[in-house]
Each structure stands twice: as structure tokens, then as C-alpha cells.
Amino acid sequence: MLNRRDLIKLTAVGGAVAAFPLERIMGGGESGPRVAAFATALHIPPAAKPVHQSATTDFYFVGVHEAEAEILPGVKSKVLTYDGKFPGATIHAKRGREVAVTYVNAMAESTVVHLHGAHVAAASDGHPTDLIKSGDQKQYRYPNTQQAASLWYHAHAHHSEAEQVYRGLAGMYLLHDEAERSLGLPEGEFDVPLLLRDVHIDAAGKLVYTAGGFEERRTLLVNGRVQPYFRVSARKYRLRFYNGSNERAYRLRLADTSSFQLIGSDGGLLPAPVTATSFDLWPGERVEAVIDFSRYPVGTQLVLFNDLGDVESTQQVMRFDVTRTATDDSRVPAVLRPLQDLGTPTVHREVELKLDLQRGAFVIDGRIFDPARVDQQIKLGTTEIWTIRNADTQPSIPHNLHLHLVQFQVLDRNGKPVGGHESGPKDTVTIPPGGNVRIKVRFDGHEGRYVYHCHMLDHSATGMMGQMEIKR
């Protein structure tokens, strides 16, 4: 639960901002040591290596434990890691080939691992109460039957998910397929995942977590490094942007406001490329963009800006340094992947998100998460329309909703059709204060209990989560 101080902070920050998107989602003054921007090279997380491969399955074995990471140059800070890496190694998977990951919990506290965006059986989904206790292990099996997409794995034990993800328990999972590869998009070293997040670094250079402490998280990390630089060739790059922050939103653009092409969203490729000069990225969301650096002369330094930041340390995300010429046979075709036909909806549901000031908790439909309670009974194979409402206007607080198991299509926000990366398959959607969003979703393939929750993790950790049971 939130204490009185946290609620006062939320009211003060939220009450000062009524517009959507929030232009000042983080308030307060500077904290922690000043670090020169663009002093460290971008870290590309290594590819995870299977310990065994069968005819059908790649097997991974991952330890979950505390370690030290050099977030600031020359300063070690305690973090939580998958196999000692911050962030975790990137798992590369192929559609139609199973991945089995055994996690061994060497931490003192319990944990859960959720593959965000994956279409998996309930036993491998990472339900918040399906704990891996200290000293235990669990194997998750991912069939990879869905289309290629930028997924990610992260901690999900209820009440501790916000802190464990914040302290480092997150990594990227790239699902590939042959249809995507045939398009000729940039690949290999020119296909780069970028995990963005904000942290609070204290005066000693250590990572600090405080529940509801978003005001102090004023240092931006990309792949675990503070505002790095990335040396690129003068050619096209496919950049996969992940928002791994607990609460911070980003509106990303290049310093010269030049355009690029959006090609993918949470659940994979868009129907067609969308030319844009900026895009919003909220917690849990992924956006894929192709940026062509061939238009810049060698020697150009180009900053990636966050227009939702309120000080320099939250506005300058990273810098691209064009250092060499290159040949380039990649392309962005006019057609990427048609949207899936989700069928005709037969059920309509209403979901309300709200901060309950009396109970000091974020709630869904007036209720705090209870794993013994089923909030939505869903028939397998049905298509539904969900209308999601954000009732928080005083204080004015944004929320976003993530549904486990499924990808959905966003129909409209406040009655207006969406565009950009939201024209593709989604699993996480943002709802403005006082506003509403309608989504169309089909529940196929798996039965069992799954959760849906706000992916502003400091909200879900207090109870902003519901449970749906899917049956034949």
C-alpha cells in the first residue's frame, strides 16, 4: 500500500498536469551525482546461449541472483540480475521452435518470471503468485507459435515486481520468423534492441529504490548505461525501443526532428511503415523504428531526445555518432504484415482504473487484486471489446493496461482512431486521465487463469491487477 507521503506526492504531481500525454510526469529537483552525458559506449546485451538443443527445443539455464553493476563509471552498485547481467542476456527465438528456460532462484526473496507479450500456457505465463521461492527452480516453456515480435522477460511476483524489475530483473526476447526475414529489413548487427529506463542514483553513485519514488528517478539508462553514445554506420538501422521504466513515459525524436519509419509495435510488424518524427513510449510498450543514417555525413553526432523529460538528464536519452560509410542492401517494403482478423466481437466489457485514496492502493473496478477471485470469466475462442476507463482526474494520473496471453487491436482513444505504432498488434495500451480506450481482443489457444494489470509497476504492486479465467 502507498503511505500518506506517497499519496500526497501523487496528488501534487498529478494535480499540476491535466493534459495527455503528461508533459511533466516527473517533478522535483535533481538528485544524485552529475554524470556527463554520452561518456559511455552503448552496451549491447549478449545473446543468451542454450545449454542444450533437441530436435524441437532450445534449453536455457539461468541463475537469478544479486550482483554488482557499474551503472556509473567506476562505481559499483548492487543490482538483481539474470546470470549476473544488467540487463539480462537477449534470448533469440524462432517461430515454431520451442524455448525452455529453467530459472534458479539464488536470491533471498521469491520471484516469478513473465515473458511479456507471449502466447503461452498458463503454467508458463508467470502468474504473480506462482512463486519460485529462494533456493528453488522452475522451467518455463515457450512454444513461440505467434508471429515475430519484440518481447521481453521480467520479474512478476506480486508486491515485489516493481522493485525487482527496477533493480535489474529484465531482459529482451526477440522472436524471429521467416516471413519477417524475407522482407529485407536491417538485420544482424544493424538490428539493435534498446531497453530504456530511469533510476535514482544517490550521492554515492548507488542505485536506490523507493516505492512511488518516481520524482527521484532522474537518470536515464539505455541497456544499463547512462545516456550512452552509439557508433553507427551511414546506413539503415532497425532499432527496437523498449520502455522498461516503472512509471516514466518517453516521447522520442531525433535532435534535428528528421523523420524515420515506424515498422513494429508490441506484437510485431505493422501492416505498413508509418513515417513519423516522434513517438510516445509508455511503460511496457515496444516500438520498432528504422532510421537511415546515410543522410548524415560521417562525423555527425545526433542526440535522441525525450520531449517528456523536464530536465537535461531526462531529456537526452542517447547519442548516435555516424563514424563510417557503409554499403546497405536492406530496405523497408511498402507492405509489412496484414493485421490478423480477430473475428466478430460477441462480448463487451468495461474496466475502470483508479487510485483509491481511502485504501492507499491503485485498484481495478474498485477492487484490490485477490488471486482467489476471478474478475472476468471468458469463453475460449471468443472475440471481445474491452472499454478501459481511467477515472483518475483528481489527482490526474495516467494508467496503462497490459493483458497477459493475448495481443489486441486498439480501436480508438476518447472516440478517435489511433495511428502510428498503435495501428499494429498491441499487448499494452495507455489510458489518459479521465479518458477511455477501446480494444478488440480474441482469446485463443490456451485455457487457465491469467492476469491483466497496469504496467506502471508501482501501481500494479499495490493491487491494480485483475484475474481472468479462460475456459471452453
TrEMBL record:
Residues 65-179, 219-300, 363-470 form the Plastocyanin-like domain. Coiled coil: none annotated. The keyword RNA-binding does not apply. Keywords: Metal-binding, Oxidoreductase. It holds the Pfam family Cu-oxidase_3. Monomer. This is Multicopper oxidase CueO. It comes from Kibdelosporangium phytohabitans. The lineage of its organism: Bacteria, Bacillati, Actinomycetota, Actinomycetes, Pseudonocardiales.
